[in-house]
């Protein structure tokens, strides 16, 4: 999983003779917390004591005299680079010191005291699981509480994750993001102050081969079955009349495993479908529906002449990708020209179209970050296979290493960071050397005319800065 932290100067004001500034910290493009320089300096000192000066990146020094506006902006840029450098270090970014700082800052920013509350977590079929937690409980605590309420075995908890979604009035849902270890789910969802947002439990892997591990358990089978039925009902999985008849027959018989096995053969099984958006491929301004799954991004494109074209971009043929944002004026009746702006997010990836031709493809979508997260998690699974590791052991290790209330001093275990805001940085070179030998054993590659992939391509990828809009 990748992370990007952006800091934006929030406010400047005179306090006596001191010029002070507060900073918004944006994580993956979303406002996470608000802090002051002194708080970040305290974090730096704590990390320095634990890890030493040789590991910790440079921190912008204190100033004796009052900062000018230009110096405040310079410090903002330096703090942004510092936070990203810490997050990109596998040890520092996964440390309990760093993550607990972000969690505490999130709670203080939203001014939510630590107390016991009831949180509703939804299953794919709409069923609610109400768990008793603390407002200060992190994501793994909440996931564990839900698993305990459902009687899901410990060795299967790592196969599932909590996702923040937004329910549409038409019954559809928009995936906002996967909840991370540095945030507090209760604070994240309640701070939005919108009943359309909810937390949902879903499987967190891509390879359907791992379904067998989950289906060996009754609770795991029920969760996977509910998600499969839901994805079919939403139209995410394509079903023809004959297949629909077979599925309905299995459903009536209560044959859940057979139902899932049949669903695994259907198009787009295990994919996440995103809201309609815009792409510049094959032509600029095309409307597209993007789906992520089977180590690819699938495009269902409506061309300017209203023709529909479908194609897929394999993750193993992407040399790099990045998420960027820009401020664009709001054009909506009287708002046009009023100076109001909104953030436009874009996911762009460089793709090997043919043996000697690379081309950038851009997707403009509010879900660009979620798409990028999906791409990276696919690469994570491929790298586990490439190294001969077991995804089951990796997920079990992640869960067993997660923070619990009684073990608050233990470090949070998480996969190493695999991205960089600068494609020329050393971490990218290291990642490239790892991915060059990735093989796709057991993964089918389509040779149809509609498939844009062809031969596999192995390369590195980068993640560039996300915008830091004011809220």
UniProtKB/TrEMBL annotation:
TM ranges: none
SUPFAM superfamilies registered for this protein in UniProt: PX domain
Primary localisation category: membrane
UniProt GO MF annotations: phosphatidylinositol binding
Keywords: Cytoplasm, Cytoplasmic vesicle, Endosome, Lipid-binding, Membrane, Protein transport, Transport
Subcellular location(s) per record: Cytoplasmic vesicle membrane; Early endosome
Cellular component terms per the entry's GO annotation: cytoplasmic vesicle membrane; early endosome
Chain positions covered by the region annotation Disordered: 395-428
Function text: Critical regulator of endosomal recycling of numerous surface proteins, including integrins, signaling receptor and channels. Binds to NPxY sequences in the cytoplasmic tails of target cargos. Associates with retriever and CCC complexes to prevent lysosomal degradation and promote cell surface recycling of numerous cargos such as integrins ITGB1, ITGB5 and their associated alpha subunits. Also required for maintenance of normal cell surface levels of APP and LRP1. Interacts with membranes containing phosphatidylinositol 3-phosphate (PtdIns(3P)).
Name this polypeptide is given: Sorting nexin-17
């Amino acid at each position: 999983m990748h992370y990007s932290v952006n800091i934006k100067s929030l406010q400047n004001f005179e306090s006596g003779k001191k010029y002070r500034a507060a900073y918004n910290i944006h994580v993956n493009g979303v406002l996470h917390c608000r802090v002051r320089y002194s708080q970040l300096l305290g974090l730096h000192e704590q990390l320095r004591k634990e890890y030493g000066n040789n590991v910790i990146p440079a921190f912008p020094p204190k100033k004796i005299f009052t900062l000018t506006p230009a110096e405040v902006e310079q410090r903002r840029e330096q703090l942004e680079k510092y936070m990203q450098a810490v997050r990109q270090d596998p040890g520092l970014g996964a440390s309990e010191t760093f993550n607990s700082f972000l969690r505490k800052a999130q709670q203080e920013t939203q001014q939510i005291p630590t107390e016991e509350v009831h949180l509703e977590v939804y299953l794919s079929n709409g069923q609610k699981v109400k768990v008793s937690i603390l407002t200060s409980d992190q994501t793994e605590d909440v996931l564990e509480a839900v698993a305990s309420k459902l009687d899901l075995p410990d060795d299967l908890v790592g196969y599932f994750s909590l996702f923040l979604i937004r329910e549409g009035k038409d019954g559809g849902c928009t995936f906002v993001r996967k909840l991370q270890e540095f945030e507090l789910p209760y604070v994240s969802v309640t701070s939005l102050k919108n009943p359309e947002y909810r937390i949902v439990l879903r499987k967190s892997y891509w390879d359907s081969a791992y379904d067998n591990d989950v289906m060996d358990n009754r609770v795991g089978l029920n969760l996977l079955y509910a998600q499969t039925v839901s994805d079919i009902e939403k139209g995410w999985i394509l079903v023809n009349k004959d297949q629909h008849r077979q599925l309905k027959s299995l459903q009536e018989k209560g044959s859940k495993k057979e139902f899932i096995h049949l669903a695994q053969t259907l198009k787009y099984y295990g994919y996440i479908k995103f809201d309609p958006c815009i792409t510049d491929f094959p032509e600029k301004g095309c409307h597209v529906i993007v789906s992520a799954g089977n180590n690819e991004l699938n495009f269902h494109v409506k061309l300017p002449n209203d023709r529909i074209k479908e194609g897929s971009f394999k993750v193993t043929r992407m040399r790099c990708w990045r998420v960027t944002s820009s401020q664009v004026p709001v054009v909506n009746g009287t708002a046009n020209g009023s100076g109001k702006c909104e953030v436009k997010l874009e996911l762009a990836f460089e793709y090997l179209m043919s043996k000697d031709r690379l081309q950038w493809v851009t997707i403009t979508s509010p879900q660009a970050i979620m798409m990028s997260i999906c791409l990276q998690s696919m690469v994570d699974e491929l790298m586990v296979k490439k190294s001969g590791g077991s995804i089951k052991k990796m997920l079990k290790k992640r869960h067993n290493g997660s923070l619990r209330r009684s073990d608050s001093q233990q470090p949070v275990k998480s996969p190493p960071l695999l991205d960089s805001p600068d494609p020329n940085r050393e971490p990218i070179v290291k990642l490239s050397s790892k991915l060059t030998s990735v093989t796709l054993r057991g993964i089918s590659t389509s040779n149809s005319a509609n498939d844009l992939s062809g031969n596999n391509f192995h390369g590195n990828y980068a993640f560039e800065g996300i915008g830091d809009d004011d809220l």
